[in-house]
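User: Hey, my collaborator sent me this sequence without any context and asked if I could get a structure. I don't really work with proteins. Can you help?
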Amino acid sequence: MNKQLSVMGLAARASMVPVLIASGLTALAVGVLTYLENPENTGGAAGVGAAPLAAAVGYLMVMVMLCLGGCGFGSQTAYTVRRLRLREELVDLWWAAYHAAMLLVLWALVATAALLGMQLKLQGLEPNWGVGPQSLMLLVYSDSFLHHLLPLADAAVWVTDLALLMANALAAALFIRSQRRGRLCLWPLLTVGVTMFTFTVDVADNAWMAMLLAALAMAGCTLTLLLTGGERREV
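Assistant: No problem. I've predicted the 3D structure and written it out in structure-token form, which is a compact way to encode the shape of the chain:
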């Protein structure tokens, strides 16, 4: 167990602080942009403005930090991993677990900031909309960005979001392993691209089921690559 904790500690030291800072700044930007969006620009509806763009930039920053944080630039990460004498697949899975935790933090912060910004804006509108839980719920369901952040009772969106989160976490671990072996892995580009695209798809769109299946397939393929591409020995 101490070896597993050492792997998690190595991962945390590599990128946790910058990832948390980037996540906090992203959430702040999303909250402010959501609050400042003028309803007149969205036909009287309380839109999110440029908040999705800020979230996308923050998400890209976090993914870059997670991918590069374990590559050992300026350090001896690969050597440290080998000294732990753990199977490579196990090391990769622990890195992926850390990545998933960091992406979950980003998701939680951005969702909270967007919801808070929307609530504060609605309360300040004239005439007052009589803001309540139902008002916010309707707005969440009417906007694809908010609906992805806050799926509420939509099980399909929950499954899609969690599958995308795991696919990105596993892809970052796959990138790090490739770097340890002196190779370049472009798989994170696919997971990032698919993730950003799904946030633009309306839940009521006929293509939504395809997005759900694509997210599940991508998560499964990434996990398979991670488990089958490892060296069958201790590293």
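In plain terms: The longest helix spans residues 88-124. You can pass these tokens on to your collaborator as they are.
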